[in-house]
Known about the structure:
single chain; alpha+beta; 5-stranded antiparallel β-sheet
Amino acid sequence: MESWWDIGEGRGYHGNELALYQITCAFCLERGNWQRVSHHEKKQPNAEKRLNFDTFECGNCKGYVLVLWSAGDRLHDYEVLPWPLKLENYPDYWPEAVGRYWLQAKRNLRDQNWDAAALMARSALQVAFRENGAQGRTLKEETDDLAQKGILPPIMREWSDHVRELGNDAAHPAPAQEATAPQDARDIVRFLDFLLRYLYTLPYEIQQYRGRAEVQE
C-alpha cells in the first residue's frame, strides 16, 4: 500500500460495510462487541473515495479503538489502533492445522519458550510441506524435494541450509539434547512466515487479482 487512499482497493474483505464482527478489542480480546461513538470522513480530492475515521467503544471492557477504513469496488479494508498484542487468528485461506501451529509458534516465541516455538514451527512446516506433496524423512529432505519439483524457489532451498532447526529432530528429543537457542527459534519461525506467504498468501492475492481483472473485462 503506497497511499492511505489505497485501503479497500484490490484487496480486503467482501462488501462495503465495515466487518466489525471480526475486530478484536486490544485490551480484553473480546471480538465483535462494539458501539460506534464517533465518525468522521475525509473525501479524496477530485474523486468519490472516502476514508472513514470511526471510534468504537468495546461493550465488554469499555476500551476504545480507532478504525480507519474505506471501501473500494466490492471490497473494503481497515486498520485498527491500538491492535491486540496477542495473536489470535490467522488468514482464513490457510489450512487450519498450519494456522493453528503457526499461532502457537508465534505465541511461544513472544513468551521466549524457545523449544516450544521451534517445535510448533516445525509442525506447521511439516503440515504445509506434506499438503504440497513433499517426500522425505526430515524437514530438510522435504524442503529439497519441493524445491526439486519447482514448488519452492531456489532461494528458499538455499535459505533452509542456514536454518539450524530444520536439521534438528526437536520432535523426538534425547536426554542430552541441548536447549533450542533463541536465535534458532527466531530463524525457523521467520522461515515459516515467508514460506506460508509464498505457498498460501501470494496465490490467494493472485487469485483475487485475476477475479478483479475478469470483472473489469
